[in-house]
Specification:
Layout (H helix, E strand, L loop, with lengths): L7 E7 L14 H7 L10 E6 L5 E3 L5 H8 L6 E3 L5 H4 L2 H11 L3 E6 H10 L7 E6 L5 E3 L2 E9 L5 E8 L5 E5 L7 H4 L7 E5 L17 H11 L4 E4 L17 E3 L5 E4 L8
Parallel strand pairs: 3-4, 4-5, 5-6, 10-11, 11-12, 12-13
Antiparallel strand pairs: 1-2, 1-14, 2-3, 7-8, 8-9, 9-10
């Protein structure tokens, strides 16, 4: 028997793509609206997790880390998961490590070994403060009663990323997959049986050849979510192509992420009938 105490609470810290919105060089209507502090402001993608009696868990640490922590009112971060080592997902690591230095503390950085190897290449000086904790992709990590599994996903022209799935023994399940495209059947398999999928989609409909792309678009994301049977899908990693003032006719089970969005995933399996 699960309870509210067992549920997973997710806060969207950032919902933007690698350049954020507004883009410095851009004069489009979406970027112009964002410059006024409007609804289209998007910082780089990251989420903040709370479960049971454990300290919060950060997932990804991009260049907007400082702003995101200030918005949360957080002075100390104890651990994080990383999906991959692109700058929009790790650009805040040096600042986090420096915060740990001033606090005279250490924190834990969890990711598959190849991701941590890339991090060491980019930030060779942070390992003394952000302790590297490699995740064996054939094993499991536990957080607040939820089991975390990870697997490599296709990131198109940008190489690879990792997705994370969270399972509770009472049947609840959700996944975070911010950077992926053209998944194989094996890569889709862990997305089945979810009550929530948080999926990265840069454009509503991307007009460029598949070999030049790195993320699903929204229309493709809807098809993927329906194919794997996700109870709901939240689209993140949005580019300036998406204007949230517009009605895209999304189905009731789909929505766009926004900064500060709070989601709760029940630990209990959804039973029909």
């Amino acid at each position: 028997m699960s309870s509210l105490h067992d549920d997973m609470f997710i806060t969207i810290l950032g919902n933007g793509d690698s350049l954020g919105t507004p883009r410095v060089y851009c004069e489009c209507a979406v970027c112009a609206e964002a410059r006024t502090g409007g609804r289209n402001v998007r910082r780089r993608s990251a989420i903040w997790l709370n479960a049971a009696d454990e300290s919060p868990l950060l997932v990804d640490c991009g260049p907007d880390w400082r702003h995101q922590m200030e918005r949360l009112g957080v002075r100390r971060v104890e651990r994080a998961l990383l999906t991959h080592a692109h700058i929009d997902h790790i650009g805040g690591l040096a600042e986090w490590a420096d915060a740990c230095r001033w606090l005279e503390t250490t924190a834990e950085l969890h990711a598959p070994a190849e991701v941590l190897a890339d991090v060491r290449t980019r930030y060779p000086w942070i390992g003394g403060r952000l302790l590297h904790r490699p995740i064996d992709v054939s094993g499991r990590l536990s957080y607040g009663g939820w089991t975390i599994t990870t697997w490599k996903v296709n990131h198109g022209k940008n190489g690879y990323s990792y997705a994370y799935r969270f399972d509770h023994p009472d049947g609840g399940a959700w996944a975070y997959c911010p950077d992926s495209i053209d998944l194989t059947e094996a890569q889709k398999a862990p997305l089945r049986g979810l009550s929530l999928l948080i999926l990265g989609t840069s454009f509503y409909e991307e007009p460029y050849p598949m070999e030049t792309r790195s993320l699903y678009d929204v229309k493709e994301g809807l098809l993927l979510a329906a194919e794997v049977g996700a109870g709901s899908v939240v689209f993140t990693h949005l580019s300036h192509d998406i204007d949230v003032r517009r009605d895209y006719g999304l189905p009731a089970w789909a929505s766009y992420a926004y900064e500060g969005m709070e989601l709760r995933v029940s630990a209990a399996a959804i039973r029909q009938g």
